[in-house]
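Study both lines:
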Amino acid sequence: MGRRKVALRREYEGLKRGQTGPQERGRRLEVLVYELLGSESLRPRRNTRLPGEEIDLSFTDGHRHFLLEARWRKRVSVADVFAFRGKLEGKLAGTLGVFLYLGAELSPGALHALTWGKGINIVLFKEHDLDDALSPGHSFREVLELKLLHAARYGRCHETYRNIREIWGSE
């Protein structure tokens, strides 16, 4: 694991211990993810502001374009998910979303709102997924690729990287 990734992991562990206020922790999380994406040559951009919306991060992997929303709160609601979906639907067809939520549970309707009767264009990243992306021997790109492949094959955008590896190991 490179020095930069070790430093990012250390920063992330400090954030998880909750030694800063919620707004500062959220801002530092965005910076951390931005630096992680940059370290993997994913060409990130921060804080794109358009009239009526703000996008936390965007990045590009080859010819695929992504928007990333990072949330660190106690609950992720249906409204949060719909707001992010609306941002994606206003972009070029094929743009994908990564909804990263830490310290939170999805409200009962949030997952339903992502998948019911719609094409899936968002993968959910939970705390375990970011843990794995920052761990030795793994990368954000690797976690993202497996989650995208799983969502494409099974229509399940919410499985963690760890669960997918377990499921696929037993097949």
Q: What stands out?
A: Residues 22-39 form the longest helix (18 residues).
